[in-house]
Amino acid sequence: MSELATDTLTELVRQKLDCLNQLWRLSGQQNELIEGGEMSQLLKVLAAKQRLLNNLQVTEHQLNPFRDDDPEQRVWRSQEDRQHCAAMIGACEKLLAKIMEHEQQCEGQMRVRRDAAAERLQGAHVASQADLETVLTAWHDATRRLEHTHEALRGEVQRLTDELENKNRELARKNRLADLGQMASHIAHELRNNLVPVTLYLSLLRRRASADPDTVSIVDKIAAACTALDVTVNDLLHFTADRDPNREQIPLAQLIEDVMNSLRPQLVAQAIVVDLDVDGHLIVNADRDMLRRCVLNLALNAIDAMPDGGDLVVTAVDCHGAIEIEVADSGQGLGEDVRARIFEPFFTTKHTGTGLGLAIVERIAEVHGGAVMAMNCPEGGAAFTISLPKRMAMQAAA
Questions:
Q1: Which of 298, 192, 174 is closest to 241 using CA atoms?
Q2: Is the N or C terminus of the chain more exposed, i.e. has fewer CB atoms within 10 Å?
Q3: Residue 80: closest CA among 177, 148, 153
């Protein structure tokens, strides 16, 4: 669904919620005016309610394209859009049903109270002041209960409004990512088609200039730039990829060891000591490639934080109904401003890189039903923890 259509749907739903909220307030005023016998004000309230009902009818007509299944009339273009439209409109309809049901209950209660009060006032037992006070007390109790119900429904209106806005933001985010994914796929195809011959020519040039160290150095720098460009394309494709995890049972210790072994030359070159504390029997039900990229990105982030060497500690434990994987470094830690934006796409504090590494980690954790968080270690450095729900992981012994 286009961003314009999404905004239109949100505005129509907001208008409908506003009308429903005003109807609810007028219903409360109507009961009070009936109680007080103020007929002139009551007529004004009834007229205002009729105007709101007319507005609701107009809004309902404008919402029809978001309900319509006719391909020529409907606004939504995917099943997910259809479900989103149905959820937003359905929430309003449920609220309207609640308001109408409660209004009928209130009118019934007021009628019963009025009849009971009339009987008591007409009976012989209302001869004393004490009996009159009893009737008034009962009446006030009923009024207070109605006020509490009004307050509860106002809270329900606010909750539904917030929920609808959150769903709208999430749908808009998915639409933006889908558009970005299409663009990234096209760019990646064009770039790689041109990078392949460039890489081949560089390899040929390096062999021919092997006797000239200066030329070889220049060729190596160009090759490194091509490699960095390919990494950037890969990061962009991984970030915009919209696919469900291909789950399998993965021995977590083996996966983490494989990642660390692939980084061994860089770890040795930077004098970084690795400490692995992973339960060897821990099995995770996840997408192998996605989980490997998570661990790899966190490890690379830790390595970048320790250019002069340090300690890299990786732990994985079964903790309180979740599997937690933590990657900690002994670097400078995270400033508050950096920590607040650390998972934002394209945010980086480094001179190189795309700023997508940690954003990719967060997306992969989310599609697995988990989360990732960043914190500073008490002894210095930073730690990143991926938490996967226990229902998606199990012990090998099981």
A1: 174
A2: C
A3: 177
